[in-house]
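Changelog note: in this version the structure field was regenerated for every chain. One regenerated record is shown below for reference.
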Amino acid sequence: MTGHVDPTKERFARFREMERPGPVHMLNLIRLRQDAAYEDGTQATGAEAYAAYGRESAPILRDLGGLIVWAGQPELMLIGPAEQSWDIAFIAEYPSIAAFVGMLRDPEYRKAVRHRQAAVADSRLIRTRPGIPGAGFGDMTLADS
């Protein structure tokens, strides 16, 4: 089974078409390779390669006004397919859709992303609209309402 590492052109076009004002949250679920798969033969573990991606992309994320708003290490898939385990989970916030797109087009980010591609066996990147939690499950107000 081939993992999902990069968006398809069609999904990215759909992402761009969904323009709206305000911030966008991106839920990231990451499964790392045991050994990174660099095209140039660089030797590293998946964790080491992903850490390199983090170090090199952090200044770009920060400069465009983005930040990591939540991070955690998944421990157990309580509901859902057990074979879809994840090593890393986090939510990145971008001030706008344009900021996210700008990051992907940044020349320094494009250099850093080679580490992500080498590190990641499978991933999910889920675009979400920020909300303000309420008192109970399903009780939420959209942040820009």
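Spot check on this record: Residues 49 and 115 are 5 Å apart (CA to CA). The chain has a mean pLDDT of 91.
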